[in-house]
Design a protein that fits this description.
The chain folds into two domains: about 130 residues; about 100 residues, no CATH class. Helices cover about 30% and strands about 20% of the residues. The strands form four sheets. Strands 4-7-11-8 form a four-stranded antiparallel sheet, with helices on one face. Strands 1-3-2 form a three-stranded antiparallel sheet. A two-stranded antiparallel sheet has the order 5-6. The protein starts with 5 loop residues before the first helix and ends in a 30-residue tail after the last strand. About 15% of the residues have low confidence.
Length: about 270
């Protein structure tokens, strides 16, 4: 049995799906704002020690990136001093300069490029070894895992000579406008089919012309790859004849046939 304490587990689990900036771990408030759930309750020195231990053990790896997301340096194992510096970095350095903000509109193209070229400190993520430790302690079963995403309604998804945009849709008074494509991936095609159907039934929408793709191999996330996966992309259209269930982001799972795919360990 792999020995792991609560803090180590929390940090590993926080990186299962994606990498994150180290500086979001600077305080409980910044952790909650970033992950939308509570942190491990560590002091700054304890957080540095746990991170350093996981980096040194080979469970985590750090990358230094620019605001535009490009990796500027090779992956590295940071020292305690580098971890402390990353935690202390201001979280949103010039990040308020979004395209919709007045400050962005008043900037020259040269100034905008300078903002995006800035280093944003260190990100942390799992190594394959760290992911394997997490899988072992949680008894993760990837055959029960589904990844659900969406794309803008103008995205063209090709299937042979056709695209989803060219398929007929319900334009009757009983329908509302299409808003987006839904993309569901998993290693079990039957589970995807059942989950999509159950979600459509629960939410009251129609599945418009699903397009399937087989992925060999399937890159589940940045550290995990499986031999095969399936992806379905479809337009969904809500019907006025069946009221939608109110959106409850913290109390309702819109995918009612999701199967538990890992078990959270209990710590004393």
């Amino acid at each position: 049995m792999d020995k792991m304490d609560k803090a180590e587990y929390w940090i590993l689990e926080s990186a299962v799906h994606s990498v994150s900036p180290i500086n979001v771990l600077a305080s409980e408030d910044s952790i909650t704002n970033w992950f939308f759930y509570p942190g491990p309750g560590l002091s700054r020195p304890d957080m540095i020690n746990v991170l350093h231990r996981l980096f040194e053990a080979g469970d985590l790896i750090a990358t230094r990136t620019n605001w535009n997301g490009t990796i500027k340096y090779e992956q590295l194992v940071p020292t305690k001093e580098e971890i402390e510096a990353a935690l202390s970095q201001e979280r949103y350095v010039n990040y308020s300069c979004t395209e919709s903000s007045p400050s962005w509109k008043n900037m020259t193209q040269e100034a905008i490029e300078a903002v995006w070229a800035q280093e944003r400190g260190l990100d942390y993520g799992l190594t394959v070894q760290g992911g394997s430790r997490w899988e072992t302690i949680t008894q993760a079963d990837w055959s029960h895992y589904l990844r659900v995403g969406s794309q803008g309604k103008h995205t063209r998804v090709k299937s042979g000579e056709e695209t989803l945009e060219e398929q007929p849709v319900d334009l009757s008074e009983n329908a509302v406008a299409l808003e987006w494509y839904v993309i569901v991936e998993g290693s079990d095609k039957k589970l995807i089919e059942e989950s999509v159907a159950a979600c459509a039934e629960a939410q009251g929408f129609s599945i418009i012309m699903p397009v399937w793709e087989v992925m060999q191999p399937w890159r589940v996330n940045y550290w995990k790859t499986l031999p095969i996966g399936y992806q379905v992309t479809y337009l969904h259209q809500y019907s006025r004849s069946k009221p939608m269930r109110p959106y409850e982001p913290y109390g309702y799972d819109p995918w009612p046939s999701y199967l538990p795919w890992y078990v959270k360990p209990q710590f004393e």
